[in-house]
Amino acid sequence: MKAIHAVAAAVLLALTAGGVWTEAWSQSNYPDRPVRIFVGFSPGVAPDVTSRLLADKLTEAWGKPVVVENVTGAGGNLAVERLAKSPPDGYTLAMGGNAALVINPNLYDKLAYDPLKDFSYISQVFIVPNILVVTPDVPAKNIQELIALGKSKPGYLIAGHAGVGTSQHLGGELFMSMTGVKIQQVPYRGTTAVLPDLMAGRLNIFFGNISNVLPLVREGKLRAFGITSRKRSPQIPELPTMEELGFSGFDATAWFGMMAPAGTPQPIIEKINAETRQFAASPDVRQKLEGLGLQLVGNSPAEFAKIVHDEIPAWGTVIRKAGIKAAAE
After folding, report:
1. CA 24 vs CA 30, 179, 264: distances in Å
2. Which of 109, 177, 195, 232 is the most core-located residue (most Cβ within 10 A)?
3. Which of 67, 221, 68, 61 is nearest to 133 (CA)?
4. In this structure, what is the dihedral angle of CA atoms 197, 201, 206, 210, given to the nearest 10 degrees?
């Protein structure tokens, strides 16, 4: 009987050890098949462009295809929701933004994911400010005239944004709360969906990502008033910040970072983090993306997770003070 027990114990030990060895082998050989990166916004905007550049770099480094899949809608919520429901094996990732992770938890009564429990944070990748622009037919030539125009003609100013909770949406809401001007805010499925209506005159004001609107400003197709970051941008240093224009504390920027489902093995997280940070530090990448107005980051998983943890209550205070509510899209 003792011999039988000994054999059974040996078999169990071998099976357990085999499972551990298989898992370790799988992690050390990651990736051995294609990897997907979900992006919650439409093609051509900053998170999409950056994700595709990163995917190309990862494909080159790993020798396996890394593909970007656009899952648009709800200010990026749909992409991270899908990520939360994906297997934690490192083969499904996302370029998640602050709208879905730290702002929308304060706007929506209930989300299909918990930003503090459902994700493994890998590295923050970039920060992008917005620029307050109007179409050429808007007669205001400076911010004071814009405010006076908005107050004298309620309903005249119509803005688009990339979804409730995005920095574009919050930029408009903060502007209204600080000035008393009423702007009609219309949600779209991404910035690239906003631009055609803006250029056609169906919209006339926009807090747009610098990478999308700066070329139009330089071409004279849009007029810029201020930038929504705390510091001026090297790409357009003559443009004052909203704070310099008299809006104390005005900060409506977007940031994005790489993330995976909670429970993804730490060796895989560390491997993706190392490649992502190398990407953010690459001179050719920096030249291209900083030329679009993006500020590259590249930090540790712990640093990224702390940003999410700290900004949820911070944005909650801003949103409650401004009286911002989530509207039906």
Report:
1. 10, 58, 13
2. 195
3. 221
4. 70
User: What radius of gyration do the chain's Cα atoms show?
Assistant: 23
Distance CA 150, CA 144 (A): 10
Give the residue carrying structure tokens 């989300």: 111
Q: What are phi and psi of 308, to 5 degrees?
A: -60, -50
Question: Mean pLDDT score of the chain, rounded to an integer?
Answer: 91
Q: Are 88 and 263 in contact, with CB atoms under 8 Å apart?
A: yes
* Assigned token pair, 245: 């224009």
The position carrying tokens 């011999």 is 3
pLDDT in tens, 83-125: 999 999 999 999 999 999 999 999 888 999 999 999 999 999 9
Tokens of 258: 């790489």
Q: Could you check whether the bond before residue 43 is cis, i.e. omega within 30 degrees of 0?
A: no
Indicate the pLDDT class of residue 286, thresholds 50, 70 and 90: very high
**Strand ranges in the chain using DSSP code E only, listed in sequence order:** 35-39, 66-70, 92-97, 119-128, 130-134, 158-161, 184-187, 205-209, 223-227, 254-261, 295-296
pLDDT of residue 70: 97
**pLDDT tens digits, residue range 190-204?**
788 899 999 999 999
Q: Which residues contact 221 (CB under 8 A, 6 or more apart)?
A: 136, 199
For 236-241, which contacts have Cβ atoms below 8 Å and span 24 or more sequence positions?
Answer: 236/131, 236/210, 236/293, 239/131
